[in-house]
Amino acid sequence: MAAIKNKLENCEVCDVAKARYTCPKCEVRTCSLTCVNVHKKELECDGIRDPTKFVPLASFTDLDLLSDYRFLEQVGRSIDTKKRNPEIKYTRQTILPVHLHKLRCAASHRKVSLLYMPQVFSRHKQNTTYLNWKTNELFWRLEWIFPQAENIKYTIDRTLDSVRLSTLVEQVLDPVSATDEIDIEKLNTKLLLADKLQFYRAAGLTNIKVLLKAEKIKKAQFRFYDLDVTLTLQENLENKTIVEFPTLHVVMKDHSNMYDIIDTDEEMNDAECTSYGAKKRYNNRSDDNKKNEPVNYFFNDFSDSDDENTDNKVKKKKKSLNIPNYEELIKM
C-alpha cells in the first residue's frame, strides 16, 4: 500500500519529484510547469475541464452538482445572447431591399438567375456587384481562380458585362499593364499575381479555357460550364444560375479533361427547367406534337376503336323487337 501511495504522490511525467498539480481535464498529476507542458503536448490536452464528463453516482458530490448547475446557467446565457444578436436572429425571407431587387430584375432581363445568400454569409458581404439604374449597366464582381498557378485567387470588384471575355482574361493575366495603380499595396499584389501567372501568359488565349462554376444542378459542386472567350460576359452568363457573383476557373486545355464540363444539350435542358414558363411551353409543345403525329393505318388495329363501338351500340338499339300485341297476350 505504501508503494502505491508513493507512486500516486510522485509526478506522472518525470516520476522524480512529488506531484503538486492535477490537470482539471485528464487528472494527470505533475510537479512543475515543464512537466505540465510535456503532458499537454504528449496527450494533446488543453487543460480545460470537461463539464459534460460522466461522473458515477457513487462518487457524485455537491461540487459536481454545483458544476452542473453552473454549466446549465452558462448554456442559458449563451442561448439568450444568440437570440439577442440581430445578425444571427434575422434572416431574409421574401422581401428584398430595393437595390437587390433591382439588381435581380436586371439580371433576369439578361436571362441570368441571380440568387442571394443570407446576410451573415461572407460571400454575400463580399459581393460588390452593382447596377447603374440610370444607364442600365450591370457591373459584376468576378472571382478568378487559376488551378495551374497554386490555385491563386484574384477578384475584380466591378466588371461591365458588355466587355468581351477575352479582354477580361488578358487584363487579368497582365494586371500591371492593364491599370495605372498608385496604391503601393495593390501594386505589390498585382506584381505577385503577374509573377505567378507567367505560365498562363506563355500559353496564350488559344491554349486556355475559362470555366464557370455551375450552380443549382445535379452534382453542381464538381461541374462547370465551358465559356466562349469570343463572346461578352453577358452572353456567356445567359441561361445560367449565379449565386451572388460568378466564379471563373482559368485552366489549360490540356488539363480540361480533369473537369466535368457540361455539354451543350445538357446545358439547354438545364436552362429550360429553370423557369416554370419554359416547362409549360415544353409541355404544350409536346401535346401539339402528339396531336399532329401521323397515323399509321397499316400497323395500328382500329377494329376496337371507340367510334366503331359506338356505331355498333346504335345499330343494336335500332333493331326491332318482336313484342306481341296485348290481345295476343291475353289469349295466351
Automatic annotation (TrEMBL):
GO terms for cellular component: nucleus; pre-snoRNP complex. GO terms for biological process: box C/D snoRNP assembly; maturation of LSU-rRNA from tricistronic rRNA transcript (SSU-rRNA, 5.8S rRNA, LSU-rRNA); snoRNA localization. Residues 11-45 form the HIT-type domain. CDD domains: zf-HIT_BCD1. One of its GO terms (molecular function) is zinc ion binding. InterPro entries: BCD1 (IPR051639), BCD1_alpha/beta (IPR057721), Znf_HIT (IPR007529). The keyword Metal-binding applies. Keywords: Isopeptide bond, Metal-binding, Phosphoprotein, Ribosome biogenesis, Ubl conjugation, Zinc, Zinc-finger. Belongs to the BCD1 family. Interacts with FBL, SNU13, NOP58, NUFIP1, RUVBL1, RUVBL2 and TAF9. Interacts (via HIT-type zinc finger) with the RUVBL1/RUVBL2 complex in the presence of ADP. Required for box C/D snoRNAs accumulation involved in snoRNA processing, snoRNA transport to the nucleolus and ribosome biogenesis. This is Box C/D snoRNA protein 1. It comes from Atta colombica.
